[in-house]
Amino acid sequence: MKINKKTNYILIWCLAFAILCSSLLVLLKPQKSIFAAVDISDIDENTEITESSGIISADLHRALTYFYNANKTSGEPISVLKIDTFKNFPVSTLDLTGGKIDEHTVHPVISDLRNLDIFDLTSFDTIILKNNKISTITTEFDEIPNLVKLDISNNQLSSFSYSALSETCYTTNLQVLNLSQNKITSCNLQNIAVGEIDLRDNQITSNNLTLPTSTNVKVNLSHNLLQGDLTQTENIVYGFQGVKDKQKYNINQQIFFGGLDGIENVKIYGVAESGNTLFKTLNAGEKTTLPLGNYLVKFTEESSEEGIEFSIIPLAPTIKLFVDNQEIESTTRLLNHNTTIKFYGDENSTIFWRKNGDANWTQSDTAEISSDGITIIYVKQVVDGFESEVQTYSFTVNKSAISAWIFLIVGIAGLVAFFFIAIVLSRKYLGTSGANKTGRNLPLD
Q1: Which of 78, 110, 220, 312 has CA atoms 20 to 30 A from the CA of 90?
Q2: What is the mean pLDDT of the chain?
Q3: pTM tops 0.85
Q4: Same domain assignment for residues 255 and 229
């Protein structure tokens, strides 16, 4: 028993040491918070859906009850919904327009459509959700095959895909899909085969747009940020592309005018304190880039609209890294030596940079990195009075550190060596103890 206890004691210490070493070699990742979700599979026709039940958002609950009470043909007003509340409803349009309707009517504003699809909405062929604050659409409409019109204009959507709709809807029944005045940067319309789609006034770029394969679909894309070769057709209207109001763009930004109903051309004015000067007229089908400056786009001379004001600014400076006057890869972000950064801007530019923690900008085309730790460099250039966007670079400096893979190998080698020594010592101890015990039991002559 003594031998077994001592053996176990050694093995326990070996195991503890192994766990400690392993914990040092593993990069610990922060744990994400996990929030309980409502299990909608437990919801049936008897489930009462209240404002505080957590099944749908409180603002969606208020909007739905408001709509029900305003459009019901009989019965008392309700404050509790059920999944069949709208089954066989007497009106075919579910109008959940948010905000102020007139001086006497203000609708609830919806920010979350989560679990809208638990309701039977097949009585509706039109759903209006304009003027809300909806940022995401997932499966809320994919079980409404008879949907003819969906209006989600003037919301906060960042993306949209045809897969959010029922297949029968986007291949057969859809007539109008209004996604205008959102913040959409990515849009996939590939399998939509029918209807008209309004995507005006979003943030869509060429790399993140998939147009319908079918030529039966009319898409209005005016007032987005599409670049490249744009050819307007009968079903694809590009209108005006390239810039948004009160924004800044670099000198390579393309401006395109494909034509709009009743508008043959747009005029681009240079804006200065002394007044606006006509710089260029874009006719339908033409595109251009502009030099540095402040500009105003007007769509008609007599229009009362203010137009689109924007600025063209320089590109941010580029960088090169040098160690002992030898250039290293500019993509390197882990530095083990004192490093010199050289900034390269436009001709006649003035370059400014600062490090994290610096209150003021330094006017220079070089910066030194020598302190261990994380160094963040901010850099910009000024050309003819126009300031570029600020480019940010982050570097990790550890001149005394060995590479992570070397540390791993050394750690594993040390762990193996420890186990080897522990096993040798254990065998030696066990052998000695066994011999002593055997010797004590030998019979005397």
Answers
A1: 110
A2: 87
A3: no
A4: no
